[in-house]
Amino acid sequence: QAGRRVLMAGNWKMNLDHREAVHLVQKLTWILQDKKHDYERVEVAVLPAFTSIRSVQTLIDGDKLRLRHGAQDISQRDSGTYTGEVSGGMLAKLGCAYVLAGHSERRQYHDEDDQVVNAKVQAAFRHGLTPILCVGEGLDVRREGRQVEHTVGQVRAALEGLKAEQVAETVIAYEPIWAIGTGEVATPADAQEVCAAIRAAVAEAYDADIAAAVRVLYGGSVKSSNVTGIMAQDDVDGCLVGGASLDPEEFAGICRYH
Ligand code: PEP
């Protein structure tokens, strides 16, 4: 991780109503506090459904919790006649620090292409949010051995037009689609191969300092039982966790991987 602050982010997807969300945050922060979690070294964030963000924010602010929170999606537009959309400005007012952009489930079920993902990354920066840009190949691409080419292509397209300091702040999550929610975790070497290639691509497009600053996460069936090997890789700076983030003991175990 070479001095980069580790980030463990829990993507709750379309799970937990606002009461359940509050309950999970309480349990998670109690466990982490009990274990004297070092938040400076390992930042912890939760990404609830839109309907739970306000409740989570109130709890975090009220109890002065050190947990960060964010959203799973953002509109590429800032306001107007876009029924059902939620803008970056609205998320910023709810204290969101992070927002996912281009999660594979959005790309797959909502037809988000690289252009839309780029517009969402730009929208995040317009409102002071840090995007967690999700990239990664499907099984067909992996079988053809084109995972690096495919994933680096997605990164380049999504970062198009950003300023260097914005790229340095962006979090990039490498999530091979074949490993998401399948229990099929990539090997630590698989994760390292693509995460290192992403960092090298940033160095090529910008410079070595920007590449050294950007945080690259791995995501795909991460659990407390497999996180240690993944986090031992030089270019993996944290994890984006789906299913396992819904269990506070399990997610706390992931946050305390060392
Ligand atoms: C995700 O959807 O971002 C994810 C990594 O899911 P899971 O951990 O359940 O594979």
TrEMBL record:
Gene behind this protein: tpiA
Coiled-coil regions listed: none
EC number(s) from the headed UniProt entry: 5.3.1.1
Cell compartments where the protein resides: Cytoplasm
Keyword annotations: Cytoplasm, Gluconeogenesis, Glycolysis, Isomerase
Chain residues that bind substrate: N11, W12, K13, G181, S221, G242, G243
Protein name: Triosephosphate isomerase
A molecular function (GO) term: triose-phosphate isomerase activity
Main subcellular localisation: cytoplasm
Active site positions: H103 (electrophile), E175 (proton acceptor)
Subunit field text: Homodimer.
Purpose of the protein: Involved in the gluconeogenesis. Catalyzes stereospecifically the conversion of dihydroxyacetone phosphate (DHAP) to D-glyceraldehyde-3-phosphate (G3P).
Pathway given in the UniProt record: Carbohydrate degradation; glycolysis; D-glyceraldehyde 3-phosphate from glycerone phosphate: step 1/1; Carbohydrate biosynthesis; gluconeogenesis
Catalytic activity: D-glyceraldehyde 3-phosphate = dihydroxyacetone phosphate
